[in-house]
Amino acid sequence: MLPDMKTTKTTSAIPYGPDGRLISVDCDANQGLPTFTIIGMADKSVSESRDRIRSAMTNSGFTFPKRKLIVNLAPANIRKTSTALDLPIALGLLALSKQLLQSDLNRNLFAGELALDGSIRPVTGIISIIECAIKNRLKSVFVPSENAPVAALLADKIKIYPVANLRQI
Asked: Most buried pick, 44, 72, 107, 108, via CB within 10 A?
């Protein structure tokens, strides 16, 4: 018998040249001791997101999944250096644990750093992140509220949703 396996996918981007680079955030839950691993050439700021995400989820009233969790950031050959991946990782875990629908994540791009209380902090390179979403024909981008004034410069090309905290998604 195969183990109970679940996967979700969320889309984000990181500043990488003028248009950014699309990042697929794939989350997987398996049976086993509860662990939370991030793979895919993540630097220290991304690896540290595990603690930010766990606290943000629980302090926002969500349940953190008690499973063996693996988050893969693809493509694996590019170093991920942005805290903008906090929000899409958290959303992938919420979909994985059925606290959010996977269909709500599809064709959208999410970017934002999570604070321990669940609020969403601004990120650098928001223009290149949005340009990446436009280039890849996504339908909308969810950005930190503090990035909204700059993001509004591209609102005629893609739908922009400013969010202040994890509960607003």
From this structure: 108
User: What's the pLDDT tens digit per position in 21-68?
Assistant: 999 999 999 888 999 999 999 998 888 999 999 999 999 999 999 999
User: What is the SS3 assignment for 10?
Assistant: strand
DSSP code of 88? H
Q: Nearest CA to 41 among 82, 12, 95, 90?
A: 82
* CA quadruple 29, 35, 40, 44: dihedral sign: positive
SS (H, E, C) 110-137: ECCEECCCCEEECCCCHHHHHHHHHHCC
Task: Please give the sequence-ordered ranges of beta strands (E in DSSP) within 31-153, or none if there are none.
Answer: 35-39, 68-74, 108-110, 113-114, 120-121, 140-144
Give the global pTM.
0.94
Q: What backbone torsions phi and psi does residue 136 show, to the nearest 5 degrees? A: -95, 10
Query: Using an 8 Å Cβ cutoff, are 51 and 39 in contact?
Result: no
Q: Where are the domains of the chain?
A: 6-168
What would you measure as the largest C-alpha separation in the chain, in angstroms? 53
* pLDDT (tens digit per residue) in 137-154: 999 999 999 999 999 999
Phi, psi of 123 (to 5 degrees): -125, 155
The number of residues making up the chain comes to 169
